[in-house]
Amino acid sequence: MDLSQYTLFITANLPYILAVLTILIFIALIIFISVSIKMSRLNKRYRKMMFGMENANIESLLLKHIEEVRQAVTKVKNLDEKCRHLDVVTTTAIQNLGIVRFNAFEDTGSDLSFALALLDQNKNGVVLSSIYGRNESRVYAKPILDGQSTYHLTAEEKAALSKSLEKNHK
Questions:
Q1: Residues 6 or more apart from 115 whose CB is under 8 A from it?
Q2: How far is CA 25 from CA 28, 68, 106, 117, in A?
Q3: Residue range 89-146, pLDDT digits in tens
Q4: Is the dihedral of CA 146, 96, 117, 104 positive or negative?
Q5: SS3 51
Q6: d(Cα 57, Cα 89) in Å, to the nearest integer?
Q7: Under 8 Å CB-to-CB from 116, ≥6 apart: which residues?
Q8: Among 128, 125, 141, residue whose Cα is nearest residue 92
Q9: Helix, strand or coil for residue 93?
Q10: Which residues, in sequence order, are bridge partners of residue 29?
Q11: Which has the closest alpha carbon to 166: 147, 149, 153?
Q12: Beta partners for 60?
């Protein structure tokens, strides 16, 4: 085929060629407008995200946020370790108490004597008793292991221990 045949073909089919080119240009225009709108939306998002950031770029922001996340994870791990340690420590701390006030002697006018049971989570602790008399006051301590005492407990001490054990079960 020589050049004259191409020219004849183009001349004979010129309306069709122009129609196809017009359609292609129209499709290209639609694609351009669509891409333009998407770019505009992306640009708005970018400006909104970068608002107040002078001389910053996404890479530096991401690196900064990654470092902050790492620091937060480290802090959470440290807090978790401290929380576990506190869980262990608090099992032996006084968590439950029961108190009973009573009048030890009839000639003293009020309930100035008391029995106080102090127990930890494992039902270990002490029962303190204060016997108040007209001329003196005495304090007694009796150890408690697993909710029991090896010493004889008075009725008031037993009541205080029962109150403390009730709180231990709640």
A1: 99, 100, 102, 127, 128, 129, 154, 156, 157, 159, 160
A2: 5, 50, 113, 93
A3: 888 899 999 999 998 887 766 788 999 999 998 899 999 999 988 788 899 999 999 9
A4: negative
A5: coil
A6: 48
A7: 97, 98, 99, 127, 128, 129, 130, 160
A8: 125
A9: coil
A10: none
A11: 147
A12: none
Which ranges constitute the DSSP H helices of the chain?
Answer: 3-12, 14-49, 58-90, 155-169
DSSP secondary structure string for all residues of 103-138: -SSTTS-S--EEEEEEE-TTS-EEEEEEEE-SS-EE
Tokens of 65: 């946020």
Q: What is the token pair recorded at 110?
A: 């009020």
- Model confidence pTM above 0.70: no
* Rounded Cα–Cα distance for residues 119 and 162 (Å): 11
Q: pLDDT tens digits for 12-53?
A: 999 999 999 999 999 999 999 999 999 999 999 988 877 777
Which amino acid type is present at position 87? D
As a whole number of angstroms, the distance between CA 154 and CA 132 comes to 15
